[in-house]
Amino acid sequence: MQTANQVYQQNKFETATPGELTLMLYNGCLKFIKLGKDAIICNKIEVRNINITKAQNIIRELMVTLKTDGEVGKNMLKMYDYILNQLIEANINNDMKALEEAEQYVVQFRDTWKEVIMINRKRQHGSRVQV
Hints:
Four Helix Bundle (Hemerythrin (Met), subunit A), 84% helix
């Protein structure tokens, strides 16, 4: 039997727009990067590996769903590839600098994506909308 929170979370994903799902992926990636950073600090190798691998999987998902028929998509794919390589480097070598660099790029993507969603909502609804 599902708890109320589990039902809420399931409905949140099922009713989200593609843009909102992408934003959730960015936020999830940042969550796992933070957990990976905490694990590096605490020297918890298994926890680091689990969380950075989850962040890598999110970047891979963003890569395979990206439309690359235009120049912007091709450039984003290159950036995702770079982020993925930084995550791999961080995971293999316990490299906080590589992890922080990946985090900075994901934050920039997330913040830009959030702005795009807000602009689209304002156009659709004509009012100030929070994401």
